[in-house]
Specification:
Helix content: 25-40%
Keywords: Metal-binding, Oxidoreductase, Zinc
Catalytic activity: L-methionyl-[protein] + [thioredoxin]-disulfide + H2O = L-methionyl-(R)-S-oxide-[protein] + [thioredoxin]-dithiol
Shape: globular
EC number: 1.8.4.12
Mean pLDDT: 83
Active site: 161
Family: Belongs to the MsrB Met sulfoxide reductase family.
C-alpha cells in the first residue's frame, strides 16, 4: 500500500512538472498572426471551437489558452516589465489588466492585483492536479489565462497569476498615437 501511495504521489508530481515545464520556447520573439476576431475595442463574446482556434493561434498560445496549459515560470517577457500601458488577451484582444495593477510577486509569472473591469475576466473552480484553485479566463473568448490567489497586496489582496504567453501589451504612448492618428483621419485634417 505504501508503494502504491508513493507511486501515486510521484505520478501527480510528474504530471504537474510536465504541465508547468512542458513548454517549448520556439515561439518566443515571433509576432504571431492574429485571429480575425482580435480587437481592443470589440466586446461581443467570441465563440469558436478549439479546432478553429488551433488553425489561427501559435502552438504555444493554443496550448495555454485553449488546453489550459502553463508556461514555464520565469520565462515571460512581461514578468519583470515596468512599461506603462495595457495588457490584452493575446487570443481575442480583450483588455485585461492595466500596468499600474501589475506587481512583482516572485511567483515566476506576471502578477496583477486587479483586472481592468469585472467583465474583462471570468473565474471558475479548478480542481485539477489534486489542487483547489480558481481559474481565470478571458471574459470575451474564455481562453485560459492563469489563476487567482488570495495572497496579493492591498487594495484587493488578490494575485492574478497570468501566463505571459497569452498576454499582448501595448505601451500607453503607442495607444495614444494610434488614437490621435485615427481621430485625425476621421476629421479629415
Amino acid at each position: 500500500m505504501k508503494n502504491f501511495i508513493m507511486a501515486a504521489i510521484a505520478g501527480v508530481l510528474v504530471l504537474t512538472l510536465q504541465n508547468c515545464y512542458g513548454q517549448s520556447s520556439a515561439d518566443h520573439g515571433k509576432p504571431a498572426a492574429k485571429a480575425p476576431e482580435y480587437s481592443h475595442t470589440e466586446t461581443a463574446p467570441v465563440k469558436k471551437s478549439n479546432d478553429d482556434w488551433q488553425k489561427v493561434l501559435s502552438p504555444e498560445v493554443y496550448r495555454v489558452a485553449r488546453l489550459k496549459g502553463t508556461e514555464r515560470p520565469f520565462t515571460s517577457e512581461y514578468e519583470h516589465s515596468k512599461e506603462i500601458g495595457t495588457f490584452y488577451c493575446a487570443v481575442c484582444g480583450n483588455p485585461l489588466f492595466k500596468s499600474d495593477a501589475k506587481y512583482e510577486s516572485g511567483c515566476g509569472w506576471p502578477s496583477f492585483f486587479e483586472p481592468i473591469s469585472k467583465k474583462s475576466i471570468v473565474e471558475a473552480a479548478d480542481n485539477s492536479l489534486g489542487m483547489h484553485r480558481i481559474e481565470v479566463m478571458c471574459g470575451r473568448c474564455k481562453s485560459h489565462l492563469g489563476h487567482v490567489f488570495d495572497d496579493g497586496p492591498p487594495p484587493t489582496g488578490l494575485r492574478y497569476c497570468i501566463n505571459g504567453v497569452v498576454l499582448d501589451f501595448e505601451k500607453a504612448k503607442t495607444a495614444e498615437k494610434k488614437f490621435n492618428s485615427k481621430k485625425k483621419a476621421e476629421s479629415g485634417s
